[in-house]
Amino acid sequence: MVFRLGQVSRSSLRTIAREAEAFEPTYEDIGATVRSIALPAGFRHDRYELELPSRTDGFTRAVEGLRSWAPHVGAGLTVEPDRLPPVGSTVAVAAPLGPLTAIAVCRVVAIVDEPDRYGFAYGTLPGHPERGEEAFVVQHANGRLVFRIVAFSKPAEVLARLGGPVTRRIQQATTTRYLQGLADFVTAST
Questions:
Q1: What is the pLDDT of residue 163?
Q2: Exposed/middle/buried for residue 93 (C-beta within 10 Å: 0-12, 13-18, 19+)
Q3: Residue 81 lies in a domain
Q4: Mean pLDDT over residues 138-149, rounded?
Q5: What is the sign of the dihedral through the CA atoms of 92, 75, 176 and 64?
Q6: In 3D, which of 20, 47, 39, 43 has the Cα closest to residue 107?
């Protein structure tokens, strides 16, 4: 993880993402969070679900929200590029932490694009405080619009390991903000 003093420009995030393109994900079972298989052993498994408000254009809005990183923006993060890139692309995620900005890099490892299901998964690259993968998927079925986040992870850096319960609480709070971020995007007026 990279720490910078103050806010970080999009051009700096682009540079960090570009530099990380040579790295490979830090885990096996790439794409496991979007497939109907068991998540890998040896990792903490998380599954979150939120039923999104019903709107006639709810699925379309939710898809657009995922493409524009609405869960992340709603959680107070900045992602570069500012639109979901294709599979194999590297993204930089910036999180403000008081006077510092923490930057982590991930690889988009899967995109799900079906008539009633849309989402993506990204996995950690070297330098990320965690090792693992996280998927963000919306599904419209049986009259319900559901947003699911599925992840497997374990600490990769000393700071994350030493943080223990504090690191875990930060992870859970961020995931809650992801869920609310997409819900807010779906219900916002266009």
A1: 65
A2: buried
A3: no
A4: 94
A5: negative
A6: 20
As a whole number of angstroms, the distance between CA 65 and CA 46 comes to 22
What is the C-alpha separation between 111 and 119, in angstroms, rounded?
Answer: 6
For residue 95, give the 3-state DSSP assignment. Answer: strand
Residue 70 burial (CB count, 10 A) = 22
pLDDT category of residue 135 using cuts at 50, 70 and 90: very high
Scored b (16 or more CB within 10 A) or e, 47-59 reads: eeebebeeeeebb
Q: What is the pLDDT of residue 190?
A: 55
Residue 55's pLDDT band, with cuts at 50, 70 and 90, is confident
Residue 61 lies in a domain: yes
CATH code assigned at 65: 3.30.530.20
- The reply to whether 114 falls in a domain is yes
Instruction: State how many domains the chain has.
Output: 1
Let me know: does 118 contact 102? Beta carbons within 8 Å: no
Distance CA 93, CA 102 (A): 8
The reply to whether 13 falls in a domain is no
SS3 161: helix
Q: CA angle 21-106-160, nearest 5°?
A: 125
Q: How confident is the model at residue 7 (pLDDT cuts 50, 70, 90)?
A: confident
Q: Determine the structural domain holding residue 35 and report its residue range.
A: 25-76+107-187
